[in-house]
């Protein structure tokens, strides 16, 4: 397939681009800067200059592709307003991508998040929360899944809280960044809350499988580690950075504080069985050993 990818230059995107190229696909990837265009070319894909806010560029990318994988998101957590704007930008972008594919039965694979479910491990059939600071992202995903009835093979790959590679990425990456800045390896709440995780290379394999084979309207969980206690994550970060480990207020993590404090283990049993997905790369706690002081 010739695949249009947004977000091909972030933490996860390059793994997805490499996975596609390594499995016989060609890739056209959105690039919003010269640096990103160069990175895409170096990876062996073709850049398409544009931006999530430039809807014509998205329409052009989808129009010339056999399928679309959407990953791009402007991670601006500096204030609730900034986050709301990023959510609205993505929502408009997804609407255009879906519109371009209507009636074509081409796949549109969008990124989502694993849902928290009080008192148990979440599964692929649990709904994603549509309230809260990133609830708008879930509503955009649901709109994409609804396109299944209008001739789009739309699917969602739900990522866990931490998608990691070489010790970086996701919520654990944020804990590391805050630890470097504050001199304390903190954890919100009592630290017993669990976050699921996956290696970016394993997540990339699931994006490819979903693109190639997932039925319209389906959701998948890219979960390799069902849930690590956040305190255990902070302990590895503290040891690697030689910093003290202690509880901190959830507000330390800005608008996402309440999500950071929530217990949210998640399962991928159905995904593994139905799509034959088999994560093989190192766990989050092992990968965090790659953090350099
Ligand atoms: N990493 C995780 O643990 C995790 C967990 C759950 C969900 N997710 C979701 O997975 C997706 C990819 O995550 P990531 O960790 O790879 O993110 P990332 O490292 O922040 O990369 C973001 C990507 O989006 C692109 N982008 C941002 N704003 C854009 C804009 N306005 N126009 C065009 N492109 C834009 C970036 O391009 P440039 O390179 O040009 O900046 C980059 O390719 C995101 O939707 C994220 O929310 C990630």
Overview of this protein structure:
The protein has 293 residues and is of the alpha/beta class. It contains eleven helices and twelve strands. The protein has helices spanning 13-21, 34-43, 55-63, 80-101, 135-146, 170-182, 200-213, 230-241, 257-260, 269-275, 284-287; strands spanning 2-6, 26-31, 46-49, 67-70, 107-113, 153-159, 162-164, 185-188, 194-199, 218-221, 225-229, 245-248. The chain has a seven-stranded parallel beta sheet, with helices on both faces. A three-stranded mixed beta sheet has the order 7-9-11. Strand 1, helix 1 (13-21) and strand 2 (26-31) form a beta-alpha-beta unit. Helix 3 packs parallel to helix 4. The longest helix has 22 residues, at 80-101. The chain is globular. The site of NADP nicotinamide-adenine-dinucleotide phosphate (NAP) has 26 residues, from strand 5 and strand 7. The site of NADP nicotinamide-adenine-dinucleotide phosphate has 26 residues, from strand 5 and strand 7.
């Amino acid at each position: 397939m010739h695949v249009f990818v947004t977000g091909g230059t972030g933490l996860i995107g390059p793994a997805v681009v490499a996975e596609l190229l390594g499995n016989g696909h060609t890739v056209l990837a959105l690039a919003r800067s010269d640096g990103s265009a160069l990175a895409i070319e170096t990876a062996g894909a073709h850049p398409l200059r544009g931006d999530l806010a430039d809807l014509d560029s998205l329409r052009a990318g989808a129009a010339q592709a056999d399928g679309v994988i959407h990953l791009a998101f402007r991670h601006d957590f500096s204030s609730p307003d900034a986050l709301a704007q990023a959510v609205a930008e993505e929502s408009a972008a997804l609407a255009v991508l879906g519109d371009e594919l209507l009636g074509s039965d081409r796949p549109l694979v969008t990124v989502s998040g694993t849902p928290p479910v009080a008192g148990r491990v979440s599964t692929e059939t649990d709904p994603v929360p549509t309230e809260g600071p990133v609830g708008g992202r879930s509503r955009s995903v649901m709109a994409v899944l609804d396109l299944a009835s209008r001739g789009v093979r739309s699917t969602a790959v739900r990522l866990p809280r931490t998608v990691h590679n070489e010790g970086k990425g996701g919520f654990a990456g944020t804990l590391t960044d805050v630890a470097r800045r504050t001199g304390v390896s903190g954890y919100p709440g009592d630290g017993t809350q669990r976050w699921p995780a996956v290696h970016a290379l394993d997540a990339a394999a699931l994006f490819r499988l979903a693109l190639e084979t997932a039925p319209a309207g389906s959701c998948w969980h890219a979960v390799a580690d069902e849930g690590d206690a956040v305190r255990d994550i902070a302990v590895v970060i503290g040891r690697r950075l030689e910093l003290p480990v202690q509880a901190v207020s959830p507000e330390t993590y800005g608008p996402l504080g309440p999500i950071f404090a929530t217990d949210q283990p998640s399962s991928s049993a159905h995904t593994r069985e139905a799509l034959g997905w088999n994560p093989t790369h190192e766990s989050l706690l092992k990968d965090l050993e790659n953090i350099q002081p």
